[in-house]
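RECORD TYPE: inverse folding
INPUT: structure tokens
STRUCTURE:
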């Protein structure tokens, strides 16, 4: 989801700079809410576990797209097996095709154990933009994201918020989990943080997914005052609406950082095995709000999917709840 969310600010600016342009975006149906209300962008759903599964399913998707749209260009922003297959169908039919350069060699040099090259690499946003530039569009990205609050509508019917969001005290969204342990702040330290924040009167919304995560978040909801678990209760569309109304998001190097960034919500991000230098920092976010501890072994992987070299996750344990609270205070007081 994070990769898909990162395409949104790039596509919005491309469409704004080229008013005659129309885009058809091919992705999974569950990501459609990310592209709601973007003019001149049509979302086409790929059912990769159903009718578009496998080689012939992808060919079926290609045939459908070719029949209902007359494209000038094909831009592959994902560069994985499925997208390679589809783009090559178009290429063999004579379409102009370009695809993202993920900079794998540079990322390997950034994360290697010996002779690490610790330098800032181009952001994924710029890599997306480069695909369109290679097609002849002089796309210029600006990092200014306007703070946007979506109407809350009827969310309160699905989540019993014990407090109003317009509001006697700041509301903090916390997404405490990531796909890998190497990117996840230790649970005992996150509980310390919750205790501090709720004692200061902040309201907390807990975001997450998956059965085990939800059980933990529900337990925290019971343990701490002014804390509400929204995980598993809302559609993605409603989650985005709720995120857009919070004062600050606390996130790992995960999709929630990018979801909050879409609405200009300040994000305090916690980094362990991964590093902002790899190019996945939230769009328009202040780099000073990235919390990380310096260790010679960091970063040890691009996505956090490699086991900790040391075996003690020192880069995460070195980050104290007080460091996070200090960042919160600097943003919302």
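DESIGNED SEQUENCE:
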């Amino acid at each position: 989801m994070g990769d898909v969310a990162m395409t949104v600010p790039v596509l919005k600016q491309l469409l704004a700079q080229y008013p005659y342009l129309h885009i058809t975006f091919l992705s999974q149906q569950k990501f459609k809410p990310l592209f709601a209300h973007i003019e001149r962008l049509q979302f086409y759903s790929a059912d990769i576990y159903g009718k578009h599964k496998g080689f012939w399913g992808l060919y079926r998707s290609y045939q459908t797209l070719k029949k209902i749209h007359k494209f000038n260009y094909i831009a592959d922003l994902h560069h994985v097996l499925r997208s390679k297959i589809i783009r090559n169908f178009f290429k063999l039919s004579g379409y102009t095709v370009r695809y993202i350069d993920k900079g794998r060699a540079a990322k390997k040099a950034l994360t290697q154990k010996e002779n690490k090259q610790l330098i800032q690499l181009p952001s994924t946003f710029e890599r997306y933009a480069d695909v369109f530039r290679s097609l002849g569009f002089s796309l210029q990205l600006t990092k200014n994201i306007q703070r946007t609050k979506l109407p809350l509508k009827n969310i309160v019917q699905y989540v019993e918020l014990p407090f109003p969001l317009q509001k006697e005290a700041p509301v903090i969204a916390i997404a405490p989990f990531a796909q890998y342990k190497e990117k996840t702040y230790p649970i005992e330290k996150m509980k310390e943080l919750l205790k501090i924040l709720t004692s200061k009167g902040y309201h907390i919304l807990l975001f997450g997914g998956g059965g085990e995560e939800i059980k933990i978040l529900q337990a925290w909801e019971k343990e701490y005052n002014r804390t509400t678990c929204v995980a598993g209760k809302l559609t993605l569309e409603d989650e985005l609406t709720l995120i857009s109304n919070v004062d600050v998001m606390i996130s790992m190097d995960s999709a929630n950082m990018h979801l909050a960034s879409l609405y200009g919500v300040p994000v305090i991000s916690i980094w362990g095995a991964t590093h902002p230098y790899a190019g996945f920092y939230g769009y328009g976010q202040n780099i000073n709000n990235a919390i990380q501890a310096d260790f010679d072994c960091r970063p040890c992987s691009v996505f956090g999917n490699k086991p900790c070299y040391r075996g003690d996750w020192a880069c995460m344990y070195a980050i104290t709840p007080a460091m996070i609270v200090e960042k919160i205070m600097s943003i919302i007081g």
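NOTES: Residues 2-17 form the longest helix (16 residues).
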